[in-house]
Design goal:
- The protein has 289 residues and is an alpha+beta fold.
- The strands form three sheets. Strands 1-6-7-5 form a four-stranded antiparallel beta sheet.
- β3 and β4 form a beta hairpin.
- The longest helix is centred in the C-terminal third of the chain and has 19 residues.
- The protein binds a DNA duplex (16 and 16 nucleotides) through α7.
Length: 289
DNA sequence: AGTTGCACCTGGCTGC
DNA sequence: TGCAGCCAGGTGCAAC
């Protein structure tokens, strides 16, 4: 599930129930996810009030009234769901009852709602970082430009691509260059921009460092695909769902991802699947150059 | 220093 | 039906 649009969708869903709420009880059900939980994790959270829920790159950041922030990453398979107080009996039809074996953290709120973090593969993690140290923390400090920020444009892309020896695919997946893109949205953005994922990233930079028109096209495509995905509630692959148990819809708008051997809607060419640095890349050999 | 490949983990799907 | 093998949204780190 979780690239930028999915994390943003989760943020919006959680914000609605979390903002201003007190964490009445925190149930940490195992010692670690990808990393060990922080020392006295539940204790440091219990009684705290959430003042803001932000996103930076693929991280969710909950600012607490204790001068610490809870930083969360969903990894590959992490998800949250919200249960309102009365959770006895069967769930409403159409809502998933995720397997409780992978419910690793349960936050009980003063409002009676429960927020449950589920993560089968346990590639996600949670950290507690003092707000003062937050900006300087390696995870956040090294994160690249936010693709939905005002400053994001072709010129920024040209700047971060300059001197790189890698393909566009690898460069866009590098969180230190552009924050929040993952395998799906990199494939989709490159398709929309008509650029081959195999192309060297430096070919989007003019000799004087200025962005080429390709760089501007790519910046536009990235912003567009992310905004559309967020508007659709993100993508729901496999069993991933939004906070309320509903599905995101953007997966129906994939134009190349997961569509190997289908024909391209733009040029009629055949969509290819290749492997780049160990990950599947989908693109149209006909119209992506 | 910059890049690539592997490891981390579980579950779902495919094909024999 | 059973099961081995492969694949998956991410990312840190070891190895070139």
């Amino acid at each position: 599930m979780p690239e930028l649009p999915e994390v943003e969708t989760v943020r919006r869903g959680l914000e609605a129930v979390l903002l201003g709420a007190q964490l009445r009880r925190v149930d940490q059900r195992r010692p670690d996810l990808r990393f060990p939980f922080p020392e006295r994790f539940a204790e440091r959270l219990t009684g705290r009030i959430v003042g803001a829920l932000r996103r930076r790159a693929k991280y969710l950041i909950a600012d607490l009234d204790s001068a610490e922030s809870l930083v969360m990453h969903l990894g590959m398979s992490g998800s949250f769901r919200i249960e309102q107080g009365l959770s006895t009996g069967p769930p409403p039809s159409g809502m998933s009852t995720k397997d409780p074996a992978h419910d690793h953290v349960v936050f009980e709120l003063s409002t009676g709602a429960r927020i449950i973090y589920n993560d089968p593969r346990r590639f996600g993690f949670m950290l507690l970082i003092s707000r003062q140290a937050l900006a300087a923390h390696p995870l956040l400090r090294s994160a690249g430009v936010e693709p939905l920020s005002d400053e994001f444009d072709g010129a920024i892309l040209a700047k971060v691509f300059a001197g790189k020896r890698t393909s566009l695919k690898a460069a866009l997946l590098d969180q230190k260059l552009v924050a929040g893109l993952g395998n799906i949205y990199v494939c989709e953005a490159l398709y929309r921009a008509g650029l081959s994922p195999l192309r060297l990233s430096t070919t989007l930079v003019r000799r004087n460092g200025a962005p080429s028109t390709r760089a501007m096209r790519l910046a536009h495509a990235i912003r567009e695909v992310l905004e559309e995905a967020i508007a659709a509630g993100g993508s729901s692959l496999r069993d991933h769902r939004t906070i309320n148990g509903g599905l995101g819809y953007f997966q129906h708008n994939f134009r190349v991802y997961g569509r190997a051997d289908n024909s391209c809607a733009r040029c009629g060419g055949t969509i290819k699947r290749v492997t780049q640095s160990g990950r599947a890349t989908f693109y149209c050999g006909g119209c992506q150059r």
